[in-house]
Every structure is written in structure tokens, then in C-alpha cells.
Design brief:
The protein is of the alpha+beta class. It has 28 helices and 30 strands. Strands 1, 2, 3, 4, 11 and 12 form a 6-stranded mixed sheet that branches. Strands 18-13-14-15-19-22 form a 6-stranded mixed sheet. A hairpin with a 2-residue loop joins strand 16 and strand 17. Helix 6 packs across helix 13.
């Protein structure tokens, strides 16, 4: 008994289960789009917040594109071309997007990169690059190429398609610049979930990894970010707040922002480059001016960037460039002191963003707990020295990844915005850097004199949080009019910043249909013209709609129809009670805030023009309060009516009629959509046709690159196949399986293909290359097949022999199980024995037959047939193993004495007769082995015979063995 249990239990060791797991193909990405570098990060199932490695396995990629006549290069490859042919390389595009041609930033770009030709777009007054006489590119199109390349890198890293992205932009980007980035992403085929300010993304990354340290006490942290093109100082407040949706959650709020658009590491590089050019000219090794040679200046810029990095850790360094110009080498020693003297005026500007941020936040440095460095240019020792003195702290924080923080923060936000991931909330309240206001002119009359009065209403104040919706109501207009949306008070900007900023006027809004709405609803009371504004998550201001709102009093019908009364009665009987009033469909529920007027006398005088109310609470709270108020008024009305019914009657008929009349009146709101015509003043957005044309242009370039890549891949494959096959013909394992005639034929075709490659192959099309490769593979197919089969025989035959030995041992062990403990039927064991014998016979006969064949003939012993035999044996053994795994051993009946045992046996024999099931009544059972209750005798021979007949059917139904070679019940042997 014990021996039998141990024997079949030991067979469980042969069972190994592997369950593959599959995940949905969902991923999101972020792009930290800097002026010189870009960093990408992804989130996908099983990979939380990972920085994308590019093709060179680097964690950051140059934001550069190189355009040649027949190809495009990106990243490090494009940057390498910038030294040889700088005219074809485009970079630092951030300084051009969203700018008009007369912007000082465009002139500065032309000065820094004189090799490019910048021209004015006559339609939009923006700039474009003239690539050739027929081909031009806008900065947005070039930026779209770079974004599309970043998506390709992310997809290769994530090994799946990606469309959703969060892109970082500088906090000082105005409306035109933000719209330009969105247009570039649209050209690249990216769905932008949000444009997030880079300083906000950095603050989010910092907060996410320090969630446990954030509590209800506000903590103020300053992030000082000096990158390649600009510098930003940001004050962030961290604390926990209560939310209705998810309880208490951490929150970051941007309190103050200060920036310097032109202070960055690239300007330091340019000054070092010019210094190196001066040193080369002073050496007088060449009569030519090095500054007039774009290629030589590109080499010096590359060396200057390396020099700046080295001087951050060393006090001096020897700069050297081989073959700078006219095969003349350049070598000169530069000290850190010289570098600091060259950039002295830049270092004086380091502290200004800090003071601007404090002013915007209305704070002092004493309220700031820590100043954290971000950005690559903060590694310059002099920058840290000046900054440390400006902030008055003992040390500067360096406990964040200065290069990758923004990318990781942005991808966390991308996962939060995506529906594919469940992310722990971290509330973000960004701030408006540039205030926006609404301006309009209204005709007033004083003492009989009509004058025009100019009014201003602040829509979004400086440092006002967003996303946010706001409504402005115009109450004194009954005819068509217009108003302007402009930037507000920008006195905190310097004159230089204002000149780079661009147009201060955003849009003129012309409304039509106002007068007709008043004529149509002349009997209703006007509630004003309401303009609904939305500043979305990307910081882009949108005028959602303008509507003319009226309020009218509707008389309710006193007499109800019989059907209505019957419906109300049934509703009351089933607990419905009195029906609640239905909201008027013409007035959708709006969750907005109205804009307050400016404080002062003017605001009081013009209070009738607009309905200025400011609500600092959340829109949801406001809507809830309004809802509660409506319910309260409704309950009061019902209460009054009830009192009138139960109390004393009114004294006069007039009072009763007035009460009934008031009760039957109901206010109804009517909204009329007003036609809006927008006249854009900053940068005119490209038309739908322009966007479609740009998308097609970029897609054509992408298709061309893919076709070129496919052709190069096919050319390499053909070339490799020719050389490899020529070499294989002389290897022993290939020479063994081919005849001399076959070998000569293959060699001749390979020589012919090689000659064709030298003459026409490198100019052939992809189709021609593919056809040539297909023909050669077809010619060599039989040879490769014979070699491959002979390679597989040893391993496959060894596996088959091992399986045969294991199966035979298993069969022998199963047969040795005592009859009382036997869990396998005779049919099952016989079936396994038959498969083993047939497999053994097939193997011996096929191997013997193969030994008689020549190696040059097609083999009869095929690896796929060996694998099929292995699979069949494995299935048979696993079937029996699974049955043994889930089987329950039969308990032995314990008889108290001979008489009772005999009686019990007779009783069981009489009562438990088993009738063999017919074909129609056969049903699978849940258990394959029937368990005899204690105290009962074992079944009689008649029952055993019946069980043995029905058992295979039950086992088959239980284990689901649908792939058995024979039927489970009534197997043919």
C-alpha cells in the first residue's frame, strides 16, 4: 500500500507547468524638449518611468536634424555632420517658433548661424528656411521632424506603438509659442495630452519621490534651472489638500516664476568659440579670417563646448583642433579665469531670475526652505558661486537628476492623463506667467455729451492657477459689438524681454447675431452676453463660445390631463413622491467663474456693464451650493404650500388668486449662440490646408527614409548572402551534401550575381535586389535543407531516446502499482504501451532507411517528424500524470466483525447496482475515482465491471483530453 502510493506520487516530479503572461500594448511617452538636447521617457505595463536610450545607448539626444538631398539624419549623426557641412544642419529651433520675421530673436539666430537663409513668410509674417529654390521648411516643420524621431526612438525602446505624449516647454512661452509646439506635434502625428512647463515637470518629479515628506504644512522650494538657451527660477509650494474624489492628496502649486530668455550655456559656448577664433587669428598661421569659414567655426564651437565642460572641473585646459583650416592645426591654452572674464556680464544676470520669482510670489528668501539646481549649465562653478551668494543659503540642493527630472515628471503626468494606467494622484496647480485681460469700448452719455469709454477687465491675473474656466458677462450691449483679448500688465519685463515677447495684442473678437437675439426675445429679460473662456492644461487660452442669455417667466398649466394625473398617482403609489422640476434644456449646467472688475472707482461705475463676481472656490463646489440652494428653495415652497393647506384659509379671494398665480409661475433661461469671428494679432495659425500640406511633406520624407533604409537592408542582405554562400560551398558540412554538378551550378550563379552587383547592383531598385536574392535562395534551398536537417538530428534523436526511456520507466512503474491503489485503467496503460512501441519501431526503421541514403539525397528522417513523435509521447504521459495528480486514493472499509461486514457487503451489493449508461444519458462526472464511505464494503465484481466500462468516459470529460489520437471510451488498439 505505502509502496504503491510512493511510486505514483514520485511521478509528479516529471510535471513542469509554464504559464506565459501577456500584457496589452499600451504605452505613453514624454519629451523634454530643450533648445539643444531632448530627453524621452516612457511608461508601459511592467516598465514604470524609464528614460529612453537612443541608438547610441545614450540617455539624451541632440535636438538636431540634418537635411541632405536624399536623406535625413537626426541626433548624434546629424550633429556629426554639423562640423563637415553646417549648412544642412538645423538646431536651436525653439528660439524661432512662434516668432515674426522682425523679432530680435530671429536676427540673433541669423547672426549665430549665418550659414542658413531665413526668409519672411508673406502670409503669416513668420520665418522659414530656404533649403533650395523649390523646397522650404518652417521651424515648426523641422521641429515636427525631431518630435517624430523622438517618437520612433521611444517606440523602439518600448517595442510597441506610441501616440500619446506630454511635451515640456519653457514656462515663459507665450500663447503663440505654445500653439506653435502643438502644431509641430500635430505634423508629427503625436497626440499631445498636455504641454507641461519644464519647471512644473521638474517640481512634480521632485514631489512624487518625496510624497511621504509632504503634509498639511506648506513647504516652499525654489528650483533654479539653467539650461542651454535660458534660465528659470521657480518657487513651488508643497502641501496636502483635501479633495472630494480621492481624499487627502499631495499638491504642488507654482507660486512665483522668474526667467531670463538669453542666459544659458549656449551663449557661453559661443563666447568661448569666438575667443578660440581670436587666438587662432593671433597665431597668424593662415592669412584667411577663420570667422569667415563656417566649417572652421563649427569645429571651434564643438571644441568650445568640450572646453566649457572640462573647465568646470579644472582650472585650465589646452584646446586643440586638428586641421582647423587649410590643414592647419590649432592648439591654445585656456584658463577658467579667462572663461569667467569672457562671461562676466552673463554671471551678473544669474541672480535676477531669483529676485523676479520672489517678487511674483510675494515672498522672501527666508520663506524658502531649499534651492535646488536643475539643468546642465548649473554645473559651471561660477554660476553656483554667484547663486549661492544671491540666495543666502549655506548650500545648494543637488539631490535631483539635473538632466532627467523634467522628462520623468512629464511622463508621470502622461501616465496620469492616460486611461491605460492607474496612477496615485499628485495635484498640480500651474501658474499664469503673463496676465491676460479683456478690453472693450462702450459709448457713454454724461450731461448730454456722448463719449467712448475704454474698459479693461482682467481675465487671468499673474500667477493665477490653471487649468481654469472663466466667464465675462456684458450687460449693456443689445447690438453687435467687438472686444479684444490682450496681455495684461507686463511691467515686470525688461524692454529687451518685451521686444522678444512679440505682439501684446492677442485677438479681436467680433460678435454678430446679438441684435437679432434681442429682437427675437424682446419679451424676455436679458441676462447679458456671456463669453466663456478656457485656459486648458497646456496653458493655451481658448474662447469656447459666446451666448446671449435671456430669462422669461412661464405660466404652468393648472389643469392636468387624465393621463398625467394617472401617471402621477402611480408614481406616488410606488414611492416616487412628487416629481422634481426638470431643468430647462436651453440652459446647460455651467461650472465657471465670472471675472471680477478692477478695483477702484472705474470698477464701481462700470459694475452695471458686466456682472463681475469672483468665486475662489472650485467650480464643483459652486455648482453643488447652487443645487443645494435650489433644493432649499423648493422645500420652502412645498412647506409653505403645506401650511396653507393645513392652516387657516386666506381672508380674501384676491390674496388666494395671487398666491396661486405666483405658484404657477416658473423662470426659464434661454441661451442663443452668438457667431464669433476671431482676428488674430500675434501669430496667425496655419490653415487646415497648410497643416495638411506640412503633414504630407513630412510623411513623404519619412516614406523616403523608410524606402532608403529598406533598399540598404536588401542590398546588404544580397551582398552578405553571395559572400557567405560562396564560402560555405567549401566547408565540410556543405560539401558533404552537394554533388559536384550542383556545386558548380550554384558557384556559377553566385559569380554572376557578384558581377551584377559590381556593375548594376548598387544602383538597382529594391524590387530588383529582392528578386535576385529570392532566386539565389531558391537555388540553394535544397542544400541548406539537407545541412540543417543533419544539424538537428543529434539533438532531436537524443531527446526522443530520452523520452522513450522515461515513458517506458513510467509505464513499468504504473503497472507495478497494487490493484487496490491502481488509478489507471487497462485501456490507458495499453494505449501508452502502443504509442511507445510504435514510436520505437518508427525510429529504428527510419534511422536504418536514412543510413542507406547518400548525404546528397533528400533525407527521409525529418526533424519535424521527430518533434511530432516527441509531442505525442509527451501528451500521453502528461495525460496520465495529470490524472494521478488530481486522483483521490480509495479508503479501505473497516469491518467491526465478520457478521456485520458480511451483512454490509450484501446490503451494498443489493442497493448499489450500477446500470451502464446509454449514449443519450452519458454525463461527465466531476470525480474520476469514486470514494467509498467508511463502514461500507468494497463494490462487487458486477459494480467493478460497470465502473471499468464507464471510467474512461468520465476521465475524458474531466481532463478535457480532446487531442487524444483515439476515442477515450472504447479505444481501438
Amino acid at each position: 500500500m505505502l509502496q504503491g502510493k510512493l511510486m505514483w506520487a514520485s511521478l509528479f516530479c516529471l510535471v513542469v507547468a509554464m504559464l506565459p503572461s501577456q500584457t496589452a500594448s499600451v504605452a505613453v511617452m514624454s519629451v523634454d524638449l530643450g533648445s539643444e538636447w531632448m530627453k524621452m521617457a516612457i511608461v508601459k505595463p511592467g516598465v514604470p518611468m524609464e528614460i529612453v536610450l537612443n541608438k547610441e545607448s545614450r540617455r539624451k539626444t541632440p535636438a538636431v536634424v540634418c537635411l541632405k538631398e536624399n536623406e535625413r539624419l537626426f541626433g548624434d549623426s546629424a550633429l556629426g555632420v554639423s562640423v563637415k557641412n553646417p549648412k544642412t544642419v538645423y538646431r536651436h529651433l525653439q528660439s524661432l517658433i512662434g516668432k515674426k520675421y522682425d523679432n530680435p530673436q530671429v536676427a540673433l539666430y541669423q547672426k549665430r548661424f549665418p550659414e542658413h537663409q531665413l526668409h519672411a513668410d508673406p502670409a503669416r509674417d513668420t520665418v522659414y528656411f530656404k533649403f533650395s529654390e523649390e523646397v522650404t521648411y518652417t521651424p515648426e516643420e523641422l521641429l515636427g521632424m525631431i518630435l517624430n524621431y523622438s517618437r520612433g526612438l521611444a517606440q523602439d525602446f518600448a517595442e510597441q506603438q506610441i501616440k500619446d505624449a506630454v511635451i515640456t516647454v519653457p514656462a515663459f512661452f507665450n500663447q503663440a509659442e505654445r500653439r506653435a509646439v502643438l502644431q509641430a506635434a500635430q505634423m508629427a502625428g503625436l497626440k499631445v495630452l498636455q504641454l507641461i512647463n519644464d519647471n512644473t515637470a521638474t517640481a512634480l518629479n521632485y514631489g512624487v519621490f518625496r510624497r511621504k515628506d509632504i503634509d498639511s504644512t506648506a513647504k516652499n522650494v525654489m528650483f533654479y534651472d539653467m539650461g542651454s538657451g535660458s534660465t528659470t527660477a521657480t518657487i513651488v509650494t508643497y502641501q496636502t489638500v483635501k479633495t472630494k474624489e480621492s481624499g487627502t492628496q499631495p499638491q504642488l502649486q507654482i507660486r512665483g516664476v522668474g526667467f531670463d530668455r538669453g542666459l544659458g550655456g549656449f551663449e557661453m559656448d559661443l563666447r568661448l568659440r569666438d575667443h578660440l577664433a581670436k587666438l587662432f587669428n593671433e597665431q597668424k598661421k593662415s592669412k584667411k579670417e577663420v570667422r569667415e569659414n563656417p566649417r572652421a567655426m563649427a569645429k571651434l564651437l564643438k571644441e568650445a563646448q568640450r572646453l566649457k565642460t572640462v573647465l568646470s572641473a579644472n582650472v585650465d585646459f589646452v584646446a586643440q583642433v586638428e586641421g582647423l583650416m587649410d590643414d592647419i592645426d590649432f592648439k591654445a591654452k585656456v584658463t577658467r579665469a579667462e572663461f569667467e572674464a569672457l562671461c562676466a556680464d552673463l554671471f551678473e544676470r544669474v541672480a535676477r531670475p531669483v529676485q523676479d520669482a520672489l517678487t511674483a510670489a510675494e515672498m522672501t528668501m527666508d520663506e524658502i526652505e531649499q534651492v535646488i539646481l536643475v539643468g546642465g549649465s548649473t554645473r559651471v562653478p561660477k554660476v553656483q558661486e554667484v547663486l549661492l551668494k544671491a540666495v543666502g543659503k549655506e548650500e545648494l540642493g543637488k539631490n535631483i537628476n539635473a538632466d532627467e527630472a523634467a522628462a520623468l515628471g512629464a511622463v508621470y503626468q502622461a501616465a496620469y492623463l492616460s486611461k491605460a494606467f492607474k496612477v496615485t494622484p499628485f495635484l498640480v496647480r500651474d501658474a499664469t506667467v503673463f496676465p491676460i485681460q479683456v478690453e472693450f469700448t462702450r459709448e457713454t452719455e454724461e450731461d448730454g455729451v456722448k463719449t467712448l469709454k475704454h474698459n479693461k477687465r482682467v481675465l487671468f491675473q499673474r500667477m493665477a492657477p490653471y487649468p481654469q474656466r472663466k466667464v465675462i458677462t456684458f450687460n449693456r450691449y443689445s447690438d453687435d459689438f467687438s472686444f479684444a483679448i490682450n496681455y495684461g500688465d507686463l511691467s515686470f519685463l525688461t524692454q529687451e524681454d518685451l521686444s522678444v515677447f512679440g505682439s501684446l495684442n492677442l485677438t479681436t473678437v467680433k460678435l454678430s447675431g446679438v441684435g437679432s437675439s434681442f429682437q427675437k426675445h424682446s419679451d424676455a429679460e436679458s441676462k447679458g452676453i456671456k463669453a466663456h473662456f478656457n485656459k486648458d492644461e497646456s496653458g493655451v487660452l481658448v474662447l469656447d463660445r459666446v451666448e446671449s442669455v435671456f430669462e422669461t417667466i412661464v405660466e404652468e398649466k393648472e389643469e392636468e390631463s387624465t393621463l398625467t394625473k394617472l401617471g402621477n398617482t402611480i408614481s406616488t403609489l410606488f414611492g416616487g413622491g412628487a416629481p422634481e422640476p426638470v431643468a430647462n434644456v436651453t440652459e446647460p449646467v455651467q461650472e465657471e467663474e465670472e471675472v471680477p472688475p478692477e478695483t477702484g472707482t472705474e470698477g464701481k461705475e462700470e459694475g452695471k456693464d458686466e456682472a463681475p463676481k469672483e468665486n475662489q472656490e472650485e467650480p464643483e463646489k459652486k455648482a453643488e451650493e447652487e443645487k443645494g440652494q435650489e433644493k432649499a428653495e423648493e422645500s420652502e415652497t412645498k412647506g409653505d404650500a403645506k401650511e396653507n393647506k393645513e392652516g387657516e384659509k386666506p381672508e380674501g379671494q384676491a390674496e388666494e388668486k395671487d398666491a396661486e398665480k405666483a405658484k404657477s409661475q416658473k423662470k426659464s433661461k434661454i441661451s442663443v449662440e452668438i457667431t464669433v469671428d476671431l482676428l488674430v494679432h500675434d501669430i496667425v495659425d496655419p490653415t487646415a490646408e497648410d497643416l495638411t500640406s506640412s503633414q504630407k511633406k513630412l510623411q513623404d520624407l519619412t516614406d523616403r527614409d523608410l524606402a532608403k533604409h529598406e533598399r540598404e537592408k536588401m542590398l546588404n542582405s544580397l551582398e552578405a548572402f553571395i559572400f557567405e554562400t560562396q564560402d560555405k560551398l567549401y566547408q565540410d558540412e556543405y560539401s558533404l551534401v552537394v554533388t559536384e554538378e550542383e556545386k558548380e551550378a550554384i558557384s556559377a550563379k553566385l559569380r554572376e550575381a557578384s558581377e551584377w552587383m559590381d556593375e548594376d547592383g548598387y544602383s538597382a531598385t529594391t524590387k530588383q535586389l529582392k528578386e535576385k536574392l529570392t532566386k539565389l535562395k531558391s537555388l540553394c534551398k535544397d542544400m541548406f535543407f539537407r545541412v540543417e536537417e543533419r544539424r538537428k538530428w543529434p539533438d532531436r534523436l537524443a531527446a526522443l531516446n530520452s523520452m522513450l526511456n522515461t515513458s517506458s520507466y513510467f509505464l513499468k512503474s504504473a503497472k507495478l502499482i497494487p490493484e487496490d491503489d491502481q488509478i489507471f485503467t487497462e485501456v490507458e496503460l495499453t494505449m501508452l504501451e502502443k504509442v511507445i512501441n510504435e514510436t520505437t519501431t518508427w525510429k529504428n526503421e527510419t534511422v536504418a532507411q536514412q543510413d542507406k541514403l547518400s548525404p546528397t539525397e533528400r533525407p527521409v528522417l525529418l526533424s519535424k517528424e521527430i518533434e511530432a513523435k516527441l509531442s505525442l509521447l509527451d501528451r500521453e504521459v502528461n495525460y496520465l500524470l495529470n490524472k494521478a495528480k488530481f486522483a483521490k486514493p480509495k479508503p479501505k472499509a473497516k469491518a467491526k466483525n465478520g457478521t456485520s461486514s458480511e451483512k454490509s457487503s450484501k446490503s451494498n451489493t443489493t442497493e448499489e447496482k450500477v446500470i451502464p449508461p446509454t449514449e443519450e444519458s452519458v454525463e461527465p462526472k466531476n470525480e474520476t475515482i469514486e470514494e467509498v464511505p467508511p463502514g461500507e464494503a468494497p463494490p462487487t465484481e458486477e459494480k467493478k465491471e460497470s465502473d471499468s466500462q464507464s471510467q474512461p468516459t468520465e476521465e475524458t470529460a474531466t481532463t478535457g483530453r480532446s487531442d487524444a489520437p483515439f476515442p477515450a471510451d472504447g479505444r481501438e488498439l
